[in-house]
Amino acid sequence: MKKITDIKGAFTLHNGVEMPYLGLGVYLADNDNEVIDAIHWALDTGYRHIDTASIYKNEEGVGKAIQSSSVPREEIFVVSKVWNADQGYDTTLKAFEESLDRLQLDYLDLYLIHWPVKDKYVETWKALEKLYQEKRIRAIGVSNFMKHHLEDLISKTEIVPMVNQMEFHPHLIQQDLIDFCTKTQIQYEAWSPMMQGKIFELSILDDLAKKYNKTVAQIVLRWNLQKGVITIPKSVKQKRIISNAALFDFEISNTDMNFIDALDKNQRTGPDPDNFNF
After folding, report:
1. Catalytic residue (one of 47, 56, 111, 188)
2. Where do the annotations place substrate binding (predicted)?
3. Catalytic residue status for 56
């Protein structure tokens, strides 16, 4: 198990960059006081990792929150993603500049290809490689890439992705994909760790929550980290943001880790990376 210490702890990417293993996701947060407040609460709680994307339409708000925070920029790990309509070499370079402009930042800590758009993601990746080599981005990665997408990408490009951000929760583990990423030194990261809220309908986790005197959300997020998976729960509620970070005063036993693993149904709450049309 990778060492889980405290809220500012990180996993090391294959290029040596430290990526905080707990972050705040801002999907669906409004591009105004809602996203600004959420980020301020997160940073005040100790989070040092913020995950946005151009399609979230809130990069401006994220930038304002970072500018107005007392936490120095270099201590905050900022992630954004290139959207599908912008994929391709030149269009990705342009989309990156537009994201930086909206965020009012000089560089990104991590930039991801949001989805594996057929016949485009290789050229998109080559644009990310250029930006990485120019030191405009500290790390580059992908999102929603299955094993065959990764194998194809790696065979046609220079740099192995540092991160693969996937839907990941007790009903969708994809252990074979995790194992492949581990073998190729690609850091696995979870989106939708709470199954878009459906996690709270799994009464089977209530017993574990009682056993550890924690919430179901805390159990699931701690399970993420102990699996070596970076996690970015999203919330705009101050209490939830604080509660989601209370993960460092307990450890789930191997038996209970295996119990949660056994809930896997290969069941998605989001789109299928092999069959999406957006």
Report:
1. 56
2. 114
3. yes
